[in-house]
Design a protein that fits this description.
Structural class: alpha/beta
Oligomer: single chain
CATH superfamily: HUPs
Order of helices and strands: EHEHHEHEHEH
CATH architecture: 3-Layer(aba) Sandwich
Radius of gyration: 16 Å
Strand order of the largest sheet: 1-2-3
Strand content: 5-15%
Largest sheet: 3 strands, parallel
Shape: globular
CATH class: Alpha Beta
Number of strands: 5
Amino acid sequence: MATGTFDLIHPGHGYYLEESKKLGGHDARLVVVVARESTVRARKRVPIVPEKQRLKVVQMLKMVDEAMLGSETDMFSTVSKIDPDIITIGPDQNFDLDWLRKKLKEKNLKAKVVKINGYHETSLDSSCKIIKKIKESDFPPDSFKHC
């Protein structure tokens, strides 16, 4: 199971999901939980892309076997439904892994928690970098007349 916001899909997302799937071995199924707008807003920022659209894009990715929206109230309810062997945390996700492992154990969930380290390094390998580039750009005014 991999989780994330998946706002403005970029190579870093692809890397994270490919590495997550590899951890499960040859016949692994990758289930991806897409964060709800309300939970992202509470943690860091308002997503640019609406949650249903982010879900649809993640469902289209070849390494993803199943994708769903997460719970708005209890992330562990989604984990309980999926009952994964492994939960992966992305390189830019700031989870306290020890806290997460403790909570899983308290809820009798046996998932191993693994932090995926590294990125597919490109100049725009995070949603924040893409947003920053757009904000800082000095594109000619006619560049977006077709938008």
